[in-house]
Design brief:
alpha+beta; four-stranded mixed β-sheet; four-stranded antiparallel β-sheet; 11 helices; about 40% helix
Length: about 400
């Protein structure tokens, strides 16, 4: 497809054949995927047209202007932002054909089984074991902080397959069916009162070797694709001006002049500018993705996102004064999405505390930025060449 005008014409032809007002949502989304308009940079037959990633904005703008339904990306963000790019990069033709279409349509929700109670910041130290048994792997272990595990059909999973290798080299990457025997999901209630996260126990879970992504023992390299995409998805999400956390604070400032002070005004101006800089930086990062895969810059974006959210939510409570102490609902729930802007200030303040932990802790991201972006010397690591089974635990 030679130019933007040709792509725009193709989208309009699609809309004429599938009017959003009269086409059922599920049928519209399925037709969009089959027409290659789901993610245009994916190959033909897998929801794409093999075009540059930048052309997706042309498709999205036309569909939005026509009032077309979307696939509710906030509910299936792990599948879209993390599983799909990894399956595309490392999956077999059969795996891509099986998983990508229902993933994009939202028919099958995905979650991520990476972190463990003893392997969070040091993810490569994970201890969940996968032992080969014929054409399957038997998996035993525990994962934690798993978003949407209570809704998920599939999970991307890394497990140790060779404890005699150093920790980064004895890991293999799998796709786990969350409905299989031996998979137990338990809620983790957070400071917000909800159980958005879960812990997952794996007891003799059999995963077919056909559900392995990448080579045996090469799981750490595969996982890097997932993690880099995750940080871009979290820190580089597309927002309008005053989108995200800064929006409710700015709205309160305009609507409640009795709360204003000089010092709060100065702090709000500073954070407003930083939020706008972060938004534009995220836009630039997405443009860089057009030329290739996400790199360590996504870690810097995610690091800034966490810090900014926590500072903005703190300012909002200070601005509201005693009203900021109110909390709308402490009911134990298992939500499908994290809704920062649709909840009250107390929720935003408490939930933002998790931003510096999820998707890579801020401490780990600082190391990534230092070493891979700034080129500073690596921290001394005495365990790089030691077999995992010999590490102190």
């Amino acid at each position: 497809m030679s130019d933007t005008a040709e792509l725009r014409a193709r989208v309009r032809e699609f809309l004429a054949a599938h009017p959003p007002a009269s086409t059922p949502r599920e049928a519209f989304l399925a037709a969009r995927f089959d027409a290659g308009l789901a993610w245009v940079h994916f190959p033909e037959g897998l929801g794409g047209l093999g075009l540059p990633r930048a052309r997706q904005t042309v498709v999205d703008a036309e569909l939005e202007a026509a009032g077309a339904p979307d696939n509710d990306p906030r509910k299936i963000g792990i599948g879209l932002g993390m599983a799909a790019p990894t399956v595309l990069a490392y999956g077999t033709d059969e795996q891509k054909a099986r998983w990508l279409r229902p993933l994009w349509l939202g028919e099958e929700v995905w979650c991520q089984l990476f972190s463990e109670p003893g392997a969070g910041s040091d993810l490569a130290a994970l201890g969940t074991r996968a032992v080969r048994d014929g054409d399957a792997w038997v998996v035993n272990g525990q994962k934690v902080w798993t978003s949407n595990a209570h809704n998920a059909r599939w999970a991307i999973l890394i497990a140790r397959t060779d404890p005699d290798q150093p920790k980064h080299r004895g890991i293999t990457y799998f796709v786990c069916d969350m409905t299989d025997p031996g998979v137990e999901v338990r809620p983790l209630r957070q400071i917000t009162g909800e159980a958005e996260f879960n812990e997952v126990f794996l007891s003799d879970v059999r995963i077919p070797d056909a559900h392995r992504l990448g080579e045996v023992g090469d799981g750490w390299r595969v996982a890097q694709t997932t993690l880099m995409n995750e940080r871009v998805a979290i820190g580089g999400m597309r927002l309008p001006r005053e989108g995200g956390m800064i929006g409710p604070v700015a709205e309160t400032w305009r609507e409640r002049p009795e709360l204003r002070t000089h010092d709060l005004h100065q702090e709000l101006l500073k954070l407003w500018v930083e939020a706008e800089v972060a938004r534009l930086t995220g836009e630039r990062l997405r443009q860089q993705l057009v030329a290739g895969q996400p790199g360590p810059e996504g870690s810097g974006m995610k690091l800034g996102f966490a810090r900014l959210n926590q500072r903005i939510s703190g300012l909002e409570l200070e601005l509201l004064g005693e009203d900021g102490l109110l909390y709308e609902d402490w009911t134990m729930r298992r939500p499908d999405i994290v809704d920062f802007t649709g909840r009250d200030a107390g929720y935003r303040y408490l939930r933002a505390k998790g931003n510096s932990i999820e998707g890579g802790t801020s401490e780990v991201l600082l190391n990534i930025v230092a070493e891979r972006v700034l080129g500073l010397p690596s921290e001394p690591r005495t365990d790089k060449d030691v077999a995992w089974k010999d590490l102190a635990r």
